[in-house]
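3-methyladenine DNA glycosylase AlkD
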Amino acid sequence: MDVKKLERMLREKRNPQNQLPMEKYMRNQFPFLGIKTPERRAILKEFLKEEREAFFLEDAEYLYSLPEREFKYAAIHLLEKFQKEWTGKDLSRLLAMALTEPWWDTIDSFAPNIFGPMALREEAVKETMRVLIYEENIWMKRISILFQLKYKGKMDEDLLKEAILKNLDTKEFFVDKAIGWVLREYAKTKEEFVLEFLKTEGLSSLSRREGGKHLSDKILW
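C-alpha cells:
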C-alpha cells in the first residue's frame, strides 16, 4: 500500500489553527498536524477508494514512525480495517507499535479493536494478554483489561477477574479507569456479575463509580 501517498495527503491538510489546541489536549506530549477526526477519516476514505494494493505491517510501522499523532491514528485505522489479517506471529510487532509513545488515545484502540479480535481467534494471543496483567508498565496492564471490552457474551470472566484483582493496588488512574470502563460495558451483558464484582474489597472509588455508572438504582451500599 502506498502509505507515503497517504502521508502526503495528510500533510497537505495540516491546520496550524488546530495544532496547538490538539497538542494541549494531549498534555503537549505529541506533535499534531491539526487534522480533526472527521477530516482525517474522510482523507482515509478517499485514499482507500483509490488504493488497491495490500496493506502490510511494514506500512503500519512506517506510518507509526512518523512524529505527528495523526499518522499513528491512520495506522491504527488501517490495522483495524484489516484486523482479520493479523495472527499471533504479528503480535510482537503490533505490541511494539502500541507501546511506542503510548497514551490512552492509541491504547484504547489497540486493546479492543486489534488485540481483542486476535485473542478470540488464537489462544496464544489470549495467553499473552494474560501475561500483560503482571507487567509493570501501566499501558500493558490497560491492554490486559480492555482487550475484552467488546466481548459481550464471549467474555472470559475468569481472565477478567484476574486482570482486575491483580491490579487493584496500582493507584494508577489509567488502570483504575480501565477497570471501571470494562465493568460498565460488561454490565450491559451480565448485570448481576458486575453488581457482585463492585462489592470487591480494594476496588478503587474511581473503578467502582465508573463500573456502576448505569447501575446506581440497583447498588445497595
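Residues 104-121 form the longest helix (18 residues).
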